[in-house]
């Protein structure tokens, strides 16, 4: 069993929003590893960062991604930083991975003050710039296709992903 497709990209790229709409269009389930982690931990992501720290969160995330890749056959969205783990990048090999790219201007506009996103709680613009610079090569490395989302509506992004999946 494998997901129809896996969505990766930075915070604000629209993995959750686009993923839900894409799953609805395909008539399959949607799953988001951020929500799986919250269900397992029994608390929201910001509280995991506060109580146990980012490293612990990354461990939970690696397990959540591996579990979903092995047991889920719908549209799967990963957390923005999931691709930081080498094991996760390796586990994505052989899957259909769509990189939803977003540049700084649109990403900042979409995440606002970073509510619910602990890494962006302070100075979201500078932090996002750093995250994008650090992660762009990693998203590109795992992706089988890239869909640019800047200046495009969720519907336009979904349509492009659907046309990629039909190929
Ligand atoms: N193509 C788009 N155009 C405009 N706004 C969008 C688009 N896609 C998503 N958004 C908006 O941007 C915000 C962030 O989207 P979303 O939560 O789906 O991002 P994400 O990639 O899942 O982020 P995270 O990595 O933090 O989970 C939401 O308010 C959403 O409505
Ligand atoms: O970009 C990141 O590192 C994160 C993105 C979110 O999806 C969550 O997984 C968490 O807030 C960390
Ligand atoms: Mg999300």
UniProtKB/TrEMBL annotation:
ATP binds at residues 12-17, 117, 152. The keyword Transport does not apply. It holds the Pfam family SKI. One of its GO terms (molecular function) is shikimate kinase activity. It catalyses: shikimate + ATP = 3-phosphoshikimate + ADP + H(+). Keywords: Amino-acid biosynthesis, Aromatic amino acid biosynthesis, ATP-binding, Cytoplasm, Kinase, Magnesium, Metal-binding, Nucleotide-binding, Transferase. Its EC number is 2.7.1.71. Substrate binds at residues 34, 58, 80, 135. Its cofactor is Mg(2+). Gene3D superfamilies: P-loop containing nucleotide triphosphate hydrolases. InterPro entries: P-loop_NTPase, Shikimate/glucono_kinase, Shikimate_kinase/TSH1, Shikimate_kinase_CS. Binds 1 Mg(2+) ion per subunit. SUPFAM superfamilies: P-loop containing nucleoside triphosphate hydrolases. Signal peptide: none annotated. It is found in: Cytoplasm. The keyword ATP-binding applies. Pathway: Metabolic intermediate biosynthesis; chorismate biosynthesis; chorismate from D-erythrose 4-phosphate and phosphoenolpyruvate: step 5/7. Monomer. Catalyzes the specific phosphorylation of the 3-hydroxyl group of shikimic acid using ATP as a cosubstrate. This is Shikimate kinase. It comes from Micromonospora polyrhachis.
């Amino acid at each position: 069993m494998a997901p129809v497709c896996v969505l990766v990209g930075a915070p604000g790229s629209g993995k959750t929003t686009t993923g839900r709409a894409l799953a609805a269009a395909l008539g399959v389930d949607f799953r988001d590893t951020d929500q799986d982690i919250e269900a397992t931990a029994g608390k929201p992501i910001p509280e995991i960062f506060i109580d146990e720290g980012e490293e612990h969160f990354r461990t939970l995330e690696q397990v959540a991604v591996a579990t979903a890749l092995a047991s889920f056959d719908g549209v799967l969205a990963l957390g923005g930083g999931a691709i930081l783990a080498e094991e996760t990048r390796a586990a994505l090999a052989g899957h259909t991975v769509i990189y939803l790219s977003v540049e700084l201007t649109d990403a900042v506009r979409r995440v606002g003050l970073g509510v619910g996103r602990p890494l962006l709680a302070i100075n979201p613009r500078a932090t996002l710039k750093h995250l994008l610079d650090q992660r762009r090569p990693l998203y590109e490395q795992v992706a089988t296709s890239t869909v640019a989302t800047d200046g495009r509506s969720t519907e336009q992004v979904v349509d492009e992903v659907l046309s990629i999946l039909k190929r």
